[in-house]
Design brief:
The chain has 21 helices and 2 strands. By secondary structure, the protein is an all-alpha fold. It has one domain: Sodium/glucose cotransporter, CATH 1.20.1730.
Length: 499
Protein backbone atom coordinates (compact mmCIF):
# COMPACT_ATOMS: atom_id res chain seq x y z
CA UNK A 1 0.00 0.00 0.00
CA UNK A 2 1.35 3.38 -0.94
CA UNK A 3 1.94 5.66 2.03
CA UNK A 4 2.10 8.61 -0.37
CA UNK A 5 -1.62 8.38 -1.04
CA UNK A 6 -2.32 8.33 2.68
CA UNK A 7 0.02 11.27 3.26
CA UNK A 8 -1.68 13.50 0.73
CA UNK A 9 -5.11 12.37 1.87
CA UNK A 10 -4.29 13.26 5.49
CA UNK A 11 -2.86 16.65 4.50
CA UNK A 12 -5.91 17.55 2.41
CA UNK A 13 -8.25 16.44 5.16
CA UNK A 14 -6.38 18.47 7.78
CA UNK A 15 -6.50 21.60 5.64
CA UNK A 16 -10.22 21.10 5.01
CA UNK A 17 -10.95 20.62 8.71
CA UNK A 18 -8.93 23.65 9.72
CA UNK A 19 -10.80 25.59 7.04
CA UNK A 20 -14.09 24.66 8.67
CA UNK A 21 -12.71 25.86 11.99
CA UNK A 22 -11.77 29.23 10.54
CA UNK A 23 -15.14 29.55 8.81
CA UNK A 24 -16.98 28.65 12.01
CA UNK A 25 -15.11 31.38 13.87
CA UNK A 26 -17.33 33.93 12.13
CA UNK A 27 -20.28 32.67 14.18
CA UNK A 28 -18.54 33.29 17.50
CA UNK A 29 -19.11 37.07 17.24
CA UNK A 30 -16.99 37.71 20.31
CA UNK A 31 -19.41 35.91 22.65
CA UNK A 32 -18.22 33.08 24.90
CA UNK A 33 -21.67 31.42 24.89
CA UNK A 34 -21.38 31.03 21.12
CA UNK A 35 -17.83 29.77 21.53
CA UNK A 36 -18.46 27.28 24.35
CA UNK A 37 -22.01 25.98 23.76
CA UNK A 38 -22.72 27.02 20.15
CA UNK A 39 -25.23 29.64 21.24
CA UNK A 40 -27.45 26.88 22.71
CA UNK A 41 -28.98 26.35 19.29
CA UNK A 42 -27.94 22.93 17.95
CA UNK A 43 -30.80 21.15 16.15
CA UNK A 44 -31.30 17.39 16.53
CA UNK A 45 -29.06 16.22 13.63
CA UNK A 46 -26.11 18.33 14.78
CA UNK A 47 -26.67 17.59 18.47
CA UNK A 48 -26.89 13.83 17.87
CA UNK A 49 -23.85 13.84 15.58
CA UNK A 50 -21.66 15.77 17.98
CA UNK A 51 -22.67 13.53 20.92
CA UNK A 52 -21.94 10.42 18.86
CA UNK A 53 -18.60 11.81 17.75
CA UNK A 54 -17.69 12.43 21.39
CA UNK A 55 -17.95 8.65 21.84
CA UNK A 56 -16.63 7.48 18.46
CA UNK A 57 -13.19 8.97 18.97
CA UNK A 58 -9.66 7.77 18.34
CA UNK A 59 -9.43 6.18 21.78
CA UNK A 60 -12.57 4.12 21.17
CA UNK A 61 -11.36 2.97 17.74
CA UNK A 62 -7.61 2.45 18.15
CA UNK A 63 -7.93 1.57 21.82
CA UNK A 64 -10.86 -0.70 21.01
CA UNK A 65 -8.97 -2.69 18.40
CA UNK A 66 -5.78 -2.89 20.47
CA UNK A 67 -7.61 -4.20 23.54
CA UNK A 68 -9.79 -6.63 21.56
CA UNK A 69 -6.79 -8.02 19.72
CA UNK A 70 -4.75 -8.56 22.90
CA UNK A 71 -7.33 -9.45 25.55
CA UNK A 72 -10.51 -10.46 23.72
CA UNK A 73 -13.78 -9.04 22.38
CA UNK A 74 -15.20 -7.76 25.65
CA UNK A 75 -12.01 -5.91 26.59
CA UNK A 76 -12.27 -3.73 23.47
CA UNK A 77 -16.06 -3.66 23.08
CA UNK A 78 -16.30 -2.41 26.67
CA UNK A 79 -15.36 1.04 25.34
CA UNK A 80 -18.26 1.58 22.89
CA UNK A 81 -20.64 -0.36 25.17
CA UNK A 82 -19.76 1.82 28.16
CA UNK A 83 -20.08 5.04 26.18
CA UNK A 84 -23.39 3.92 24.67
CA UNK A 85 -24.65 3.06 28.15
CA UNK A 86 -23.78 6.55 29.34
CA UNK A 87 -25.67 8.13 26.44
CA UNK A 88 -28.69 5.93 27.13
CA UNK A 89 -28.81 6.69 30.85
CA UNK A 90 -28.18 10.37 30.29
CA UNK A 91 -30.93 10.55 27.70
CA UNK A 92 -33.39 8.81 30.00
CA UNK A 93 -32.65 10.71 33.20
CA UNK A 94 -30.27 13.67 32.89
CA UNK A 95 -30.42 15.35 29.47
CA UNK A 96 -33.65 17.29 29.97
CA UNK A 97 -32.99 18.75 33.42
CA UNK A 98 -29.34 19.54 32.65
CA UNK A 99 -30.22 21.30 29.38
CA UNK A 100 -33.03 23.21 31.08
CA UNK A 101 -30.64 24.74 33.62
CA UNK A 102 -28.89 26.85 30.98
CA UNK A 103 -25.36 26.10 32.20
CA UNK A 104 -22.09 26.93 30.45
CA UNK A 105 -19.96 24.21 32.04
CA UNK A 106 -20.75 21.14 34.15
CA UNK A 107 -19.04 22.57 37.30
CA UNK A 108 -21.70 25.31 37.21
CA UNK A 109 -24.13 22.68 38.48
CA UNK A 110 -21.96 21.99 41.52
CA UNK A 111 -21.84 25.73 42.31
CA UNK A 112 -25.60 26.20 41.97
CA UNK A 113 -26.42 23.15 44.07
CA UNK A 114 -23.52 22.95 46.53
CA UNK A 115 -21.60 26.24 46.52
CA UNK A 116 -18.31 27.71 45.36
CA UNK A 117 -15.98 25.34 47.25
CA UNK A 118 -17.49 22.21 45.71
CA UNK A 119 -17.44 23.88 42.29
CA UNK A 120 -13.73 24.63 42.61
CA UNK A 121 -12.77 21.13 43.77
CA UNK A 122 -14.89 19.48 41.04
CA UNK A 123 -13.42 21.79 38.40
CA UNK A 124 -9.84 20.91 39.39
CA UNK A 125 -10.55 17.17 39.24
CA UNK A 126 -12.23 17.53 35.84
CA UNK A 127 -9.26 19.50 34.54
CA UNK A 128 -6.82 16.74 35.49
CA UNK A 129 -9.15 14.04 34.20
CA UNK A 130 -9.62 15.65 30.82
CA UNK A 131 -5.93 16.25 30.43
CA UNK A 132 -5.64 12.44 30.27
CA UNK A 133 -8.44 12.30 27.69
CA UNK A 134 -6.68 14.88 25.55
CA UNK A 135 -3.42 12.97 25.92
CA UNK A 136 -5.02 9.73 24.69
CA UNK A 137 -6.39 11.49 21.64
CA UNK A 138 -3.03 13.07 20.83
CA UNK A 139 -1.36 9.67 21.22
CA UNK A 140 -3.61 8.20 18.55
CA UNK A 141 -2.87 11.07 16.18
CA UNK A 142 0.84 10.86 16.93
CA UNK A 143 0.89 7.21 15.89
CA UNK A 144 -1.08 8.07 12.76
CA UNK A 145 1.42 10.73 11.70
CA UNK A 146 4.27 8.34 12.57
CA UNK A 147 2.85 5.65 10.31
CA UNK A 148 1.54 7.68 7.40
CA UNK A 149 3.48 10.97 7.31
CA UNK A 150 6.90 9.57 8.20
CA UNK A 151 7.25 11.80 11.28
CA UNK A 152 8.72 10.68 14.59
CA UNK A 153 6.25 9.98 17.40
CA UNK A 154 7.34 13.19 19.12
CA UNK A 155 6.97 15.16 15.88
CA UNK A 156 3.59 13.62 15.11
CA UNK A 157 2.02 14.20 18.50
CA UNK A 158 3.41 17.75 18.64
CA UNK A 159 2.12 18.60 15.17
CA UNK A 160 -1.34 17.33 16.04
CA UNK A 161 -1.35 19.31 19.29
CA UNK A 162 -0.52 22.51 17.42
CA UNK A 163 -3.17 21.85 14.77
CA UNK A 164 -5.86 21.06 17.33
CA UNK A 165 -4.97 24.15 19.33
CA UNK A 166 -5.36 26.35 16.25
CA UNK A 167 -8.63 24.64 15.39
CA UNK A 168 -9.96 25.03 18.92
CA UNK A 169 -9.27 28.71 19.48
CA UNK A 170 -10.82 29.61 16.15
CA UNK A 171 -14.23 27.94 15.86
CA UNK A 172 -15.13 26.61 19.31
CA UNK A 173 -18.10 24.25 19.58
CA UNK A 174 -19.56 25.48 16.30
CA UNK A 175 -16.52 24.06 14.49
CA UNK A 176 -16.85 20.80 16.46
CA UNK A 177 -20.52 20.37 15.58
CA UNK A 178 -20.12 21.00 11.86
CA UNK A 179 -17.19 18.62 11.46
CA UNK A 180 -18.85 16.00 13.69
CA UNK A 181 -21.89 15.90 11.42
CA UNK A 182 -19.64 14.85 8.52
CA UNK A 183 -17.43 12.65 10.66
CA UNK A 184 -20.12 10.26 11.90
CA UNK A 185 -21.10 9.36 8.35
CA UNK A 186 -17.45 8.83 7.41
CA UNK A 187 -17.00 6.69 10.55
CA UNK A 188 -20.08 4.60 9.72
CA UNK A 189 -18.86 4.01 6.17
CA UNK A 190 -15.32 3.23 7.30
CA UNK A 191 -16.34 0.90 10.14
CA UNK A 192 -18.70 -1.28 8.13
CA UNK A 193 -16.68 -1.04 4.91
CA UNK A 194 -13.63 -2.34 6.77
CA UNK A 195 -15.58 -5.17 8.41
CA UNK A 196 -17.17 -6.30 5.15
CA UNK A 197 -13.83 -6.20 3.30
CA UNK A 198 -12.12 -8.29 5.99
CA UNK A 199 -14.94 -10.85 6.05
CA UNK A 200 -15.05 -11.12 2.27
CA UNK A 201 -11.31 -11.50 1.76
CA UNK A 202 -10.00 -13.19 4.92
CA UNK A 203 -12.98 -14.53 6.80
CA UNK A 204 -13.00 -14.33 10.57
CA UNK A 205 -10.75 -16.66 12.52
CA UNK A 206 -11.12 -16.10 16.25
CA UNK A 207 -8.75 -17.65 18.74
CA UNK A 208 -10.40 -19.74 21.49
CA UNK A 209 -11.59 -17.70 24.46
CA UNK A 210 -11.36 -14.38 22.61
CA UNK A 211 -14.74 -13.98 20.87
CA UNK A 212 -18.11 -12.40 21.78
CA UNK A 213 -19.38 -15.73 23.16
CA UNK A 214 -16.45 -16.06 25.57
CA UNK A 215 -18.56 -14.86 28.49
CA UNK A 216 -15.87 -15.83 30.97
CA UNK A 217 -14.41 -12.42 30.06
CA UNK A 218 -17.40 -11.07 32.00
CA UNK A 219 -17.62 -13.69 34.74
CA UNK A 220 -14.06 -14.81 35.56
CA UNK A 221 -11.54 -12.50 37.20
CA UNK A 222 -8.74 -14.57 35.65
CA UNK A 223 -10.14 -13.80 32.19
CA UNK A 224 -10.30 -10.06 32.84
CA UNK A 225 -13.92 -9.78 34.02
CA UNK A 226 -13.15 -7.21 36.73
CA UNK A 227 -11.28 -5.01 34.28
CA UNK A 228 -13.96 -5.32 31.60
CA UNK A 229 -16.80 -4.49 33.98
CA UNK A 230 -14.75 -1.65 35.43
CA UNK A 231 -14.30 -0.29 31.89
CA UNK A 232 -18.02 -0.43 31.11
CA UNK A 233 -19.05 1.09 34.44
CA UNK A 234 -16.35 3.78 34.45
CA UNK A 235 -17.41 4.94 30.99
CA UNK A 236 -21.11 4.38 31.57
CA UNK A 237 -21.17 6.64 34.62
CA UNK A 238 -17.91 8.59 34.51
CA UNK A 239 -18.74 10.11 31.15
CA UNK A 240 -21.84 11.71 32.70
CA UNK A 241 -19.59 14.36 34.22
CA UNK A 242 -17.38 14.68 31.14
CA UNK A 243 -16.84 18.36 30.34
CA UNK A 244 -17.19 18.06 26.56
CA UNK A 245 -20.09 15.61 26.82
CA UNK A 246 -22.23 17.91 28.95
CA UNK A 247 -21.25 20.94 26.86
CA UNK A 248 -22.90 19.24 23.87
CA UNK A 249 -26.06 18.63 25.92
CA UNK A 250 -26.10 22.28 27.02
CA UNK A 251 -25.75 23.28 23.35
CA UNK A 252 -28.93 21.48 22.21
CA UNK A 253 -31.76 23.83 21.24
CA UNK A 254 -34.23 22.33 23.75
CA UNK A 255 -34.44 19.72 26.54
CA UNK A 256 -36.37 17.42 24.20
CA UNK A 257 -33.69 17.74 21.53
CA UNK A 258 -30.98 16.97 24.11
CA UNK A 259 -32.81 13.79 25.15
CA UNK A 260 -33.45 12.53 21.63
CA UNK A 261 -29.88 13.32 20.60
CA UNK A 262 -28.53 11.16 23.45
CA UNK A 263 -30.74 8.22 22.50
CA UNK A 264 -29.82 8.38 18.81
CA UNK A 265 -26.13 8.75 19.69
CA UNK A 266 -26.29 5.73 22.01
CA UNK A 267 -27.44 3.46 19.19
CA UNK A 268 -24.98 5.01 16.73
CA UNK A 269 -22.04 4.47 19.08
CA UNK A 270 -22.70 0.72 19.14
CA UNK A 271 -23.33 0.51 15.39
CA UNK A 272 -19.98 2.15 14.64
CA UNK A 273 -17.88 0.84 17.53
CA UNK A 274 -18.65 -2.89 17.67
CA UNK A 275 -17.35 -3.68 14.12
CA UNK A 276 -13.90 -2.46 15.19
CA UNK A 277 -13.94 -4.99 18.03
CA UNK A 278 -14.87 -7.81 15.65
CA UNK A 279 -12.26 -6.83 13.08
CA UNK A 280 -9.54 -6.94 15.73
CA UNK A 281 -10.42 -10.53 16.66
CA UNK A 282 -9.35 -11.75 13.25
CA UNK A 283 -6.26 -9.55 13.01
CA UNK A 284 -3.81 -12.24 14.19
CA UNK A 285 -4.95 -14.62 11.47
CA UNK A 286 -4.91 -11.87 8.85
CA UNK A 287 -1.38 -10.77 9.69
CA UNK A 288 -0.26 -14.39 9.60
CA UNK A 289 -1.76 -14.87 6.13
CA UNK A 290 -0.05 -11.79 4.69
CA UNK A 291 3.20 -12.28 6.62
CA UNK A 292 3.11 -9.03 8.58
CA UNK A 293 4.63 -8.32 11.98
CA UNK A 294 2.55 -5.85 13.95
CA UNK A 295 4.26 -2.72 15.21
CA UNK A 296 2.15 -0.04 16.89
CA UNK A 297 -1.66 0.06 16.85
CA UNK A 298 -3.35 -2.97 15.25
CA UNK A 299 -5.74 -0.86 13.20
CA UNK A 300 -2.92 1.13 11.62
CA UNK A 301 -1.11 -2.09 10.67
CA UNK A 302 -4.28 -3.29 8.92
CA UNK A 303 -4.72 -0.02 7.05
CA UNK A 304 -1.09 0.20 6.02
CA UNK A 305 -0.54 -3.38 4.91
CA UNK A 306 -3.86 -5.07 4.19
CA UNK A 307 -6.69 -2.69 3.28
CA UNK A 308 -7.03 -1.05 -0.18
CA UNK A 309 -5.90 2.61 -0.19
CA UNK A 310 -9.34 4.05 -0.95
CA UNK A 311 -11.01 2.27 1.95
CA UNK A 312 -8.01 2.92 4.18
CA UNK A 313 -8.29 6.64 3.50
CA UNK A 314 -11.93 6.63 4.56
CA UNK A 315 -11.09 4.90 7.84
CA UNK A 316 -8.12 7.20 8.44
CA UNK A 317 -10.29 10.24 7.75
CA UNK A 318 -12.79 9.02 10.32
CA UNK A 319 -10.08 8.43 12.96
CA UNK A 320 -8.35 11.72 12.27
CA UNK A 321 -11.61 13.65 12.32
CA UNK A 322 -12.47 12.01 15.62
CA UNK A 323 -9.05 12.91 16.99
CA UNK A 324 -9.53 16.54 16.07
CA UNK A 325 -13.08 16.65 17.37
CA UNK A 326 -12.37 14.94 20.69
CA UNK A 327 -9.17 16.88 21.29
CA UNK A 328 -11.01 20.07 20.37
CA UNK A 329 -13.74 19.27 22.89
CA UNK A 330 -11.20 18.38 25.58
CA UNK A 331 -9.19 21.57 25.10
CA UNK A 332 -12.29 23.72 24.76
CA UNK A 333 -14.09 22.25 27.76
CA UNK A 334 -11.09 22.10 30.07
CA UNK A 335 -9.87 25.60 29.27
CA UNK A 336 -13.39 26.97 29.82
CA UNK A 337 -13.56 25.21 33.20
CA UNK A 338 -10.21 26.73 34.18
CA UNK A 339 -11.33 30.21 33.13
CA UNK A 340 -14.96 30.09 34.25
CA UNK A 341 -14.97 27.83 37.29
CA UNK A 342 -11.43 27.92 38.68
CA UNK A 343 -10.57 31.56 37.99
CA UNK A 344 -14.19 32.64 38.39
CA UNK A 345 -14.53 34.59 35.13
CA UNK A 346 -18.21 35.02 34.27
CA UNK A 347 -19.94 35.60 30.96
CA UNK A 348 -20.35 39.30 30.19
CA UNK A 349 -21.41 39.20 26.55
CA UNK A 350 -19.50 40.41 23.52
CA UNK A 351 -20.40 44.04 24.22
CA UNK A 352 -19.39 44.11 27.87
CA UNK A 353 -16.68 46.42 29.10
CA UNK A 354 -13.46 45.26 27.48
CA UNK A 355 -15.27 42.60 25.49
CA UNK A 356 -16.10 39.10 26.68
CA UNK A 357 -13.31 38.38 29.17
CA UNK A 358 -14.39 34.75 29.56
CA UNK A 359 -13.78 34.19 25.86
CA UNK A 360 -10.35 35.81 26.06
CA UNK A 361 -9.18 33.90 29.15
CA UNK A 362 -10.56 30.61 27.82
CA UNK A 363 -8.43 30.97 24.72
CA UNK A 364 -5.36 31.69 26.86
CA UNK A 365 -6.03 28.67 29.07
CA UNK A 366 -6.16 26.53 25.93
CA UNK A 367 -2.38 26.98 25.68
CA UNK A 368 -1.87 25.51 29.16
CA UNK A 369 -4.16 22.56 28.55
CA UNK A 370 -2.58 21.74 25.19
CA UNK A 371 0.91 21.66 26.71
CA UNK A 372 -0.28 19.46 29.60
CA UNK A 373 -2.00 17.02 27.23
CA UNK A 374 1.13 16.86 25.09
CA UNK A 375 3.30 16.09 28.14
CA UNK A 376 1.03 13.25 29.28
CA UNK A 377 0.82 11.84 25.75
CA UNK A 378 4.61 11.64 25.58
CA UNK A 379 4.79 10.10 29.06
CA UNK A 380 2.10 7.41 28.52
CA UNK A 381 1.85 6.49 24.80
CA UNK A 382 -1.37 4.47 25.24
CA UNK A 383 -4.83 5.04 23.73
CA UNK A 384 -7.72 3.14 25.30
CA UNK A 385 -6.15 3.10 28.77
CA UNK A 386 -5.93 6.88 28.93
CA UNK A 387 -9.60 7.13 27.95
CA UNK A 388 -10.57 4.76 30.77
CA UNK A 389 -8.33 6.48 33.29
CA UNK A 390 -9.86 9.87 32.47
CA UNK A 391 -13.41 8.73 33.17
CA UNK A 392 -12.34 6.52 36.08
CA UNK A 393 -11.10 9.59 37.92
CA UNK A 394 -14.40 11.41 37.36
CA UNK A 395 -16.49 8.37 38.28
CA UNK A 396 -14.75 8.00 41.64
CA UNK A 397 -16.00 11.25 43.16
CA UNK A 398 -18.15 13.38 40.88
CA UNK A 399 -21.01 11.24 39.60
CA UNK A 400 -22.72 10.63 42.95
CA UNK A 401 -23.04 14.37 43.79
CA UNK A 402 -24.43 15.03 40.31
CA UNK A 403 -27.15 12.38 40.51
CA UNK A 404 -27.76 13.04 44.19
CA UNK A 405 -28.05 16.77 43.58
CA UNK A 406 -30.75 16.21 40.99
CA UNK A 407 -32.76 13.46 42.65
CA UNK A 408 -32.14 13.54 46.42
CA UNK A 409 -33.55 16.56 48.22
CA UNK A 410 -31.41 16.02 51.32
CA UNK A 411 -28.05 16.22 49.55
CA UNK A 412 -25.79 18.94 50.97
CA UNK A 413 -22.62 20.74 50.01
CA UNK A 414 -20.77 19.10 52.89
CA UNK A 415 -21.93 15.68 51.69
CA UNK A 416 -20.86 16.44 48.12
CA UNK A 417 -17.43 17.61 49.24
CA UNK A 418 -17.00 14.54 51.43
CA UNK A 419 -17.95 12.30 48.50
CA UNK A 420 -15.57 14.00 46.08
CA UNK A 421 -12.65 13.86 48.49
CA UNK A 422 -13.29 10.32 49.76
CA UNK A 423 -13.88 8.83 46.29
CA UNK A 424 -11.03 10.68 44.58
CA UNK A 425 -8.46 10.08 47.32
CA UNK A 426 -9.38 6.39 47.45
CA UNK A 427 -8.95 6.12 43.68
CA UNK A 428 -5.63 7.97 43.77
CA UNK A 429 -4.27 5.70 46.50
CA UNK A 430 -5.31 2.61 44.54
CA UNK A 431 -3.75 4.12 41.43
CA UNK A 432 -0.41 4.62 43.17
CA UNK A 433 -0.42 1.12 44.66
CA UNK A 434 -1.55 -0.84 41.58
CA UNK A 435 1.15 -2.16 39.22
CA UNK A 436 -1.28 -2.09 36.27
CA UNK A 437 -4.10 0.11 34.98
CA UNK A 438 -6.75 -1.79 32.99
CA UNK A 439 -4.17 -4.41 32.09
CA UNK A 440 -1.38 -1.98 31.15
CA UNK A 441 1.72 -1.37 33.27
CA UNK A 442 1.46 1.69 35.53
CA UNK A 443 4.33 3.87 34.33
CA UNK A 444 2.94 7.14 35.70
CA UNK A 445 3.04 6.64 39.46
CA UNK A 446 3.58 3.24 41.07
CA UNK A 447 4.72 2.59 44.65
CA UNK A 448 5.96 -1.02 44.80
CA UNK A 449 4.18 -3.08 47.43
CA UNK A 450 3.28 -6.67 48.19
CA UNK A 451 -0.39 -6.08 48.94
CA UNK A 452 -1.99 -5.19 45.62
CA UNK A 453 -1.26 -7.33 42.55
CA UNK A 454 -2.47 -7.42 38.97
CA UNK A 455 -5.31 -9.72 40.07
CA UNK A 456 -6.88 -6.74 41.85
CA UNK A 457 -6.88 -4.65 38.63
CA UNK A 458 -10.39 -3.35 37.90
CA UNK A 459 -11.67 -3.47 41.46
CA UNK A 460 -10.42 0.04 42.36
CA UNK A 461 -12.83 1.43 39.76
CA UNK A 462 -15.75 -0.27 41.49
CA UNK A 463 -14.70 0.38 45.09
CA UNK A 464 -13.80 4.08 44.92
CA UNK A 465 -17.25 5.48 44.00
CA UNK A 466 -18.86 3.24 46.65
CA UNK A 467 -16.61 4.84 49.26
CA UNK A 468 -17.70 8.24 47.94
CA UNK A 469 -21.38 7.24 48.02
CA UNK A 470 -21.16 6.16 51.65
CA UNK A 471 -19.47 9.44 52.60
CA UNK A 472 -22.08 11.42 50.62
CA UNK A 473 -25.06 9.80 52.33
CA UNK A 474 -23.64 9.88 55.87
CA UNK A 475 -22.38 13.48 55.77
CA UNK A 476 -25.48 14.78 53.96
CA UNK A 477 -27.74 13.26 56.60
CA UNK A 478 -25.59 14.73 59.36
CA UNK A 479 -25.56 18.24 57.88
CA UNK A 480 -29.02 18.53 56.34
CA UNK A 481 -31.22 21.12 58.00
CA UNK A 482 -34.78 21.90 56.96
CA UNK A 483 -34.43 25.63 56.75
CA UNK A 484 -36.43 27.89 54.52
CA UNK A 485 -33.53 28.56 52.18
CA UNK A 486 -32.98 24.84 51.81
CA UNK A 487 -36.63 24.33 50.99
CA UNK A 488 -36.53 27.07 48.41
CA UNK A 489 -33.48 25.53 46.80
CA UNK A 490 -35.11 22.09 46.82
CA UNK A 491 -38.16 23.57 45.11
CA UNK A 492 -36.00 25.12 42.40
CA UNK A 493 -34.25 21.82 41.80
CA UNK A 494 -37.57 20.00 41.73
CA UNK A 495 -38.81 22.34 39.02
CA UNK A 496 -35.64 21.70 37.04
CA UNK A 497 -36.20 17.95 37.28
CA UNK A 498 -39.71 18.13 35.84
CA UNK A 499 -39.86 16.43 32.45
Amino acid sequence: MENTAFSWGIIVFLLGTLGIGVWASKQIKGDSVNFLVAGRGLALPLAAATLMAQSVDSNATLGNTDLSSEFGFWAGAALPIGLALCLLLTGLFLAKPMNRMGLITIPDFYRIKYGRTVELVAACIMTVSFSFLLAGTLVAGGYMFLNFLGLSYFGGITLLAVLVFAYTVSGGLFAVAYTDFIQVFIALLGSWGLLLYVLANFGLTIEPGMGPLAFDQLTSVGSGAAINWASIIALGFGNMVAIDFMARIFAAESPETAQRACLFASAGTLIIGIPFSIIALGSTSIFSQVGITVEGPVLFSLLENVIPPALGLVVLAAILSASLSTADGAILGTSSVLAHNVLGIRHAGAHGAGGDKLLQITRLMAIVITILGLFLGLKVPQTGVLLLLAFDMSFAGLVVPLIGGLFWAKSTGQGALACILAGSITRFVFFALMPTMFGVDNTLLYIPNGVFTIDFDGFPTLISPLVGLIAFVIVSKMTYREQRSDQQQAKVMANIRQL
